[in-house]
């Protein structure tokens, strides 16, 4: 971290102690645990159409339409939209998340961790799981407005979970979709 980045962060109201603990450009185990849980929650709570070879035309494409036999096909081969899409983790993994979405997610997660480090550092584990793992899940679920997340997680103190909930909601929702290359974007 450069001195300019540190000064800018302090001017924006962030805790300078955070940068002395987490100043490396490589994620700490603490941050990596948060990020892994964030991506896991993103994939199991989002629905996305599959990507692959269209059984009708053979093109590699997002299979976001249904044919008469209720098979997923590309939009060039049918007009009928499906009633639902499967959970993203049925067809995608973290490796399918685009570099652009990973960069944005990393920035958002690290900002959230920096801005809320006092509350996040106050708990080591929740229900036998590492607190940072729970926080990564809760950050995604809360920012997306799923109705679960920090506000209903036992383990954080009442005031801390209210602060974490409000902070996560300020980051806003992320609309994920599958691009023409089979990668997940926002």
Task: Looking at this protein, list some descriptive labels.
mainly alpha; two-stranded antiparallel ribbon; two-stranded antiparallel sheet; 10% strand; 186 residues; 8 strands; 7 helices
Summarize the structure.
With 186 residues, this protein is mostly helical. The chain has 7 helices and 8 strands; from the N terminus they run αααββββααββααββ. It has a two-stranded antiparallel ribbon with strand order 1-2.
Report on this model:
The protein folds into 2 domains: 131 residues, no CATH class; 37 residues, no CATH class. It has 7 helices and 8 strands, in the order αααββββααββααββ. The chain is elongated and about 55 Å long. The two termini are 27 Å apart. A two-stranded antiparallel ribbon has the order 1-2. Strands 3-4 form a two-stranded antiparallel ribbon. Strands 5-6 form a two-stranded antiparallel ribbon. With 186 residues, the protein is mainly alpha-helical.
Radius of gyration: 19 Å
Strand content: 5-15%
Helix-strand pattern: HHHEEEEHHEEHHEE
The count of helical stretches stands at 7
Number of domains: 2
Termini separation comes to 27 Å
Tell me about the largest β-sheet: 2 strands, antiparallel
Topology:
Layout: H1 3-11, H2 16-22, H3 29-45, E1 51-53, E2 60-62, E3 65-66, E4 72-73, H4 99-115, H5 117-121, E5 125-126, E6 129-130, H6 131-143, H7 158-170, E7 177-178, E8 184-185
Antiparallel strand pairs: 1-2, 3-4, 5-6, 7-8
